Structures are given as C-alpha cells and as structure tokens.
Amino acid sequence: MITAPNDNEIISSVLQGDQARYAELVKRYQNFVFTIALRYAPQREDAEEIAQDVFVKAYRSLADFRGDSKFSTWLYTIVSTTCISFLRKKKLDTRSLDNEQVFEVADNQDSGFRANQVEQKSKLQMVNEAIKRLSPDDAKLITLFYKGEQSLEEISRIMGLEVNTVKVKLHRARQRLKDRMEKHFVQEVRDLMS
Amino acid sequence: MEPQSNIENRLWDYIDGVCSEEEKSLVEQLIASNQEWKEKYKELLEAHQLMANIELEEPSLRFTRNVMEEIGRHHIAPAAKTYINKRVIWGIGAFFLLSIAGFLIYGIGQIFGSEISAPPVSIDSINLDKINFGKLVNSTYTNIFLMINALLGLVLLDMYLRKKKNNLQEETE
Q1: Cα(first)–Cα(last) distance of chain A, in Å?
Q2: B50 reaches A (C-beta below 8 A)
C-alpha cells in the first residue's frame, strides 16, 4: 500500500531545492486555509488573496519551521496573523467575539430568503449556514477544532491564548452555534406548519 | 441541583475526551442514572457530530497554480538562527551589563566620595545632591559608550548585508 508522504518529508525536499513539491502541501491544506480566510473575508476573491498570501509567507519562512510542532499548527498560526493583518489593512468589520448583535444583524439580513429556503435544508446544510453567522473568531475556533485536527494545546499556540481560555471560548462558541441551529429548527417547524 | 451551564461544560469536556479518568467515570454514572444528564448528553453529542461534519470551502481550481507561480518569484529566506550569531547577541548583552555596572560603580563612588572610608555606611550618609548628573551625561565615558554602541550597530549591519550578498550570489550561481 502506498502511503502519502508526510509533511516533514515534503518540507525537506522543498528545502533541498525541489520547489515543485510545495504544491503537495498547498493542495493538502488549501481548503482549510481558504475556509478560515472566508470566515474573516466573506468575499471569495479576498479570501483567495489571503490564502495565497499565507502559502507564500509559509514558503518564504519554511527554513524557520523547526518541526517541533505539526506543520499544520505552524501554518495555521500564519493564517491567523495574516487574516488579522488583512482585516486591519482593509478595515473590514471584524465583528467582536461575544456580540449578540451580530446574530441579530445576520438574522435580519437573510430572514427573507431563509423562510423560502429553510425547508430544503438538511441538518448538515444548516450547521454550515449557522457557522457562517458566527463571529470570525468563533467560526475559526470551531473550524480549527473540528476540521483542522488541532488539539486544545495546539489551538492555544495558534491563537496565542492560554489553554483554559481556548477551552472556555470553544464551549461558548459551540453553545452559540447550537443556539443558532436550534433557532433554525424552530423556524423550520413554523414554516412547515404555516 | 447543578446549574445547566456547569452540566454542559462537564459534558463537553467528557465528549472532547479532555477530562480526567475519575471525572470520566463520574460523568458516565450521571449519564446512566440521571435523566437530565442523559438528555443533555444526547443533545450535545448530536451537536458535536454535526459540527464534526461541517464542510470546508474550496478555492478556485487555479488556486494551487497561482500559488506556485507566485512562489516562483520568491526564495526561501535563510533560517533566523543561521544569520543571528548567538555569540554576537551574548557579546552585546555582556557589554550592556558591564556598562550598567560601570555606571553604577561610578555613581556610587560619587555618592560616598570621601565617606567611603567611614564604615558602617548609614542611609543618611547617601546624599543625592552630590551626584553630578550633568557630568554623568556629558562625560567622556558617555561619549565612549555611545560610540561603541554605534560601532556595534555598524558591525551588525555589515554582517547582515554581507550575508545577504552571499545568499544572492549563491542563488545566481
């Protein structure tokens, strides 16, 4: 059985001059990096620009990757700082962490079309929709934990926070997401009844 | 009765597998024996499974090619540890410590002056008015200190530029 080369093997090759092999790392992590970027920059063009910037920065600093953490943890740290720099540069609305108004605004923005669409949505589609309505930090945290294969310790390193703080933030983020989904289910039932 | 938020926190820790063995068996017992815990666990587990299935977005098909084209214009920067010589850092650190120690000895010498030979020294004998701060700032020692700092700065800049030049030469060869 042929196993895919691990990240460190690819990095060694790239550092030895085989630049083309970097494409393997890009392909491996592009969806994740792009998804996190989308949490911060809703426009796909902007998110792609951020994601591209992340991979270029990672490439340029590849010699500094010491291998004492997973490559993904190191890469996601670059994602995190690049997203924040992008927001500062573009002066986009960052939407604060525990801002309930965010949810109200999001609800108002799409309540019109949602009424027509909601009955077609599966639970999975709903969770994907609900996560888009979370604040970028909440969405990033949940994505890192569930899709980035990162432990709480690794997330704390990526976000520059204490492990306990990450744990509390993750609990809160999941609670908010759960509340969002519950609201959708209630709405769905109402729509079906009317 | 335990508050709802506390139950949820303990259940999330249990689901994430980050609680201790003791806590794990305690939570398992509560789930098995308490209806409220059982329902909450079922609810959180379902939410957990849904979150584990969130979909990742995909960038455009040209994304990888765009990145590879872009990095074709860049080079991997040398690792920070290769161009930061630890001996130089330690040397600068030692120089600053010695400078501070020198200034302190000089200052203390000025405070005590001739009284240095009259032990024991009491706190009343320290007369701050005796320190000539103007002399301290405008003295030859200060000028020498600044000169050496400037010199060290130029040496570091020279080292950095030389490394950069060497790297460029290596890349063009």
Answers
A1: 56
A2: yes
